[in-house]
Design goal:
With 558 residues, this protein is of the alpha+beta class. Among the domains are: 63 residues, Serine Threonine Protein Phosphatase 5, Tetratricopeptide repeat (Alpha Horseshoe); 132 residues, Serine Threonine Protein Phosphatase 5, Tetratricopeptide repeat, CATH 1.25.40.20. The protein contains 25 helices and 11 strands. A 5-stranded mixed sheet has the order 1-4-3-2-9, sandwiched between helices. It has a two-stranded antiparallel ribbon with strand order 5-6. It has a two-stranded parallel sheet with strand order 7-8. α15 runs antiparallel to α16 and α22 packs antiparallel against α23. The radius of gyration is 29 Å and the shape is elongated. This is 4950_t:CDS:1.
Length: 558
């Protein structure tokens, strides 16, 4: 990236004075960029001497404190803003071609050896056309982030399989960390930063009269501190970094070392071992001079004692540092330092598009058409938990329509009961709200079966998925299924839920009310299920429900 920045033409308005040029590189185009150095044609010992020479040259020429930070895949030489971080990749190459062919994005397949600038044909074509072509055979774990990063530098992204008419609009509402492939790239196109994504979700909540996120105030209050770390405001790190080192005017070498030391102490201090079962150390990185980081900077890492600890140590050694420095020698043409993750085109676009068969399954589920549901699931192999344009699963749509047979068929194909809609309601909440007794019994029976299967296999994740639906809270209103049944006057549903053990005395604590009612006093109120019976449209039914609640332990003092 740093070499590409030098090869690209400087905008005319920034080429007149040195101050303008400096402003462009430090405040406009390359705010948080670092410099990557690759070593080729040397063995390990010679590579160490070269790294030591680079460190000494940098330390002699930078007027501030300089230190080294050794992560699993690179050694970073850091100082103080505006001096860039310098990353030396811990991989030995035989030639410049091995280095350049390992890059995933076309335009950055360029390098400089001190005398000549090198570029691959695909890099030359990308620079000429100002366009990067998606190539899944070269995909790295941060491929989409890197493509988006270069769009800010004037490079468009060519996706041959892109179909705007089939884009799933719910990708903009999902957790960004869980998005992959084209879906992540489309979100980055519209909402490039975490702040943009958070503001979009909050404004969408406001338009829908939904409550604010419970952490909205805390997130907004920390916006200034986030802005000081230039590396947190845009895109994630390269594949060579397993530790994010802050960069900005407020961060010098001394402060960065203090942050690293604090993190290391939290993870490995013996004072914290009382509350932990593990004894193995986890060091995200070592810091010191170049000679110091060549060696083991801990010296007290315990050895694994059991086969489980040995297996855990092998897994954690892929991320954390331990012992003396070592270089990666296998397959130097790989972009990813860990494992390489090639995907097919269908896998890469799966989350981004709503396929016709997926849309058809949602439509026939909403209509309760058993034959077409079975055809979609058995013959066309459509995911039973696929979602429509509003983020609803086939099971939720079948429950909304009251189609008991369709619900039974979807449950037989392991439809996920705990899947939530945009407001946090599950199929159980919907069935309780609409008063579908048969469907509710089916859902509870299937939930019990799933729980027993999970207990036999001792799967913690599955047990979490099969958590009692009686205590499951909808995100927006913080209601359980019983409370929805009370509010909508479903007496028989309330009896069934109480029979299954629903809590009639649960305090309903709102983390935030709808925006139009969200003031200091209303947001502090606590309600109880008995008080909801007063809001039932049919007052006679509300009286019967209140009587039922009082008979089962509710108190009038609530």
């Amino acid at each position: 990236g740093s070499v590409l920045a030098c090869l690209l033409p400087l905008p005319e308005e920034y080429s007149t004075f040195s101050r303008k040029t400096r402003e462009y590189y430090h405040e406009k185009a390359y705010v948080s960029s670092d410099i990557d150095l690759f070593i080729y044609g040397l063995d390990e010992e010679a590579a160490k001497q070269k790294m030591l020479h680079i460190y000494n040259v940098v330390a002699d020429n930078v007027p501030w404190e300089v230190t080294c930070v050794r992560a699993k895949s690179c050694v970073s030489i850091i100082s103080q803003y505006p001096y860039r971080h310098i990353q030396i990749v811990l991989r030995l190459y035989q030639s410049p071609s091995e280095i350049l062919t390992g890059f995933d994005v076309d335009c950055c397949s360029v390098g400089f050896d001190g005398e000549n600038a090198w570029a691959l044909p695909r890099a030359h074509q990308a620079i000429t056309k100002q366009c990067n072509v998606v190539d899944l055979t070269r995909r790295s774990p941060s491929y989409e982030m890197r493509l988006a990063k270069y769009t800010e530098r004037g490079f468009e992204i060519k996706v041959p399989s892109l179909d705007h008419s089939r884009i799933d609009p719910t990708i903009y509402d999902r957790s960004f960390e869980k998005l992959h492939g084209l879906a992540r790239l489309l979100v980055l196109e519209r909402l490039a930063t975490p702040d943009f994504r958070f503001r979009y979700l909050e404004e969408k909540r406001e338009c829908s009269l939904r409550p604010k996120h419970s952490k909205a105030g805390i997130y907004a209050s920390r916006s200034w501190s986030r802005s000081q770390n230039l590396r947190r405001s845009k895109f994630e790190n390269s594949d060579y970094e397993t530790v994010q080192l802050p960069y900005g005017e407020r961060f010098n070498a001394k402060r960065i070392k203090k942050l690293i030391y604090k993190k290391d102490m939290v993870m490995n201090s013996h004072w914290n071992q009382k509350t932990r079962k593990r004894i193995l150390h986890r060091h995200p990185c070592f810091f010191g001079t170049m000679e110091q980081v060549f060696n083991d900077c801990c010296g007290t890492c315990p050895d694994p004692r059991t086969p489980e600890e040995k297996e855990l140590q092998e897994e954690e050694d892929k991320i954390f540092v331990r012992g003396e420095i070592s270089f990666i020698k296998d397959d130097p043409g790989r972009q990813a330092i860990g494992s390489f993750h090639p995907l097919t085109e269908d896998d890469w676009t799966e989350e981004a598009f709503i396929r016709p068969v997926r849309e058809d399954l949602c439509v026939v589920s909403a209509k309760g058409n058993l034959e077409k549901i079975k055809k979609a699931l058995v013959e066309e192999k459509v995911d039973v938990n696929a979602r429509d344009y509003l983020g609803r699963t086939p099971l939720q749509l079948a429950v909304m329509g009251g189609f008991t047979d369709a619900v039974a068929l979807l449950l037989a194909h392991d439809a996920r009961i705990t899947a939530r809609m945009s407001d946090g309601r599950t199929a159980v909440h919907v069935a309780a709200m609409l008063g579908f007794m048969d469907i509710l019994e089916l859902l509870f029976k299937k939930s019990d079966i799933n729980k027993k299967k999970a207990e036999k296999r001792d799967l913690k994740e599955t047990l979490a998925e099969t958590e009692s639906q009686l205590v499951s809270l909808a995100w927006d209103h913080q209601f359980t299924p019983l409370e929805y049944a009370i509010l909508f006057g479903r007496l028989e549903i309330a009896k069934l839920l109480i029979k299954y053990g629903a809590n009639v005395k649960r305090p309903i604590k709102f983390s935030g009310l709808p925006i139009v009612y969200n003031n200091y006093y209303s947001s502090k109120k606590v309600y109880f299920p008995l008080s909801l019976s007063m809001l039932t449209r049919d007052q006679g039914m509300g009286l019967k429900i209140a009587t039922l609640l009082l008979e089962n332990g509710a108190m009038t003092s609530q």
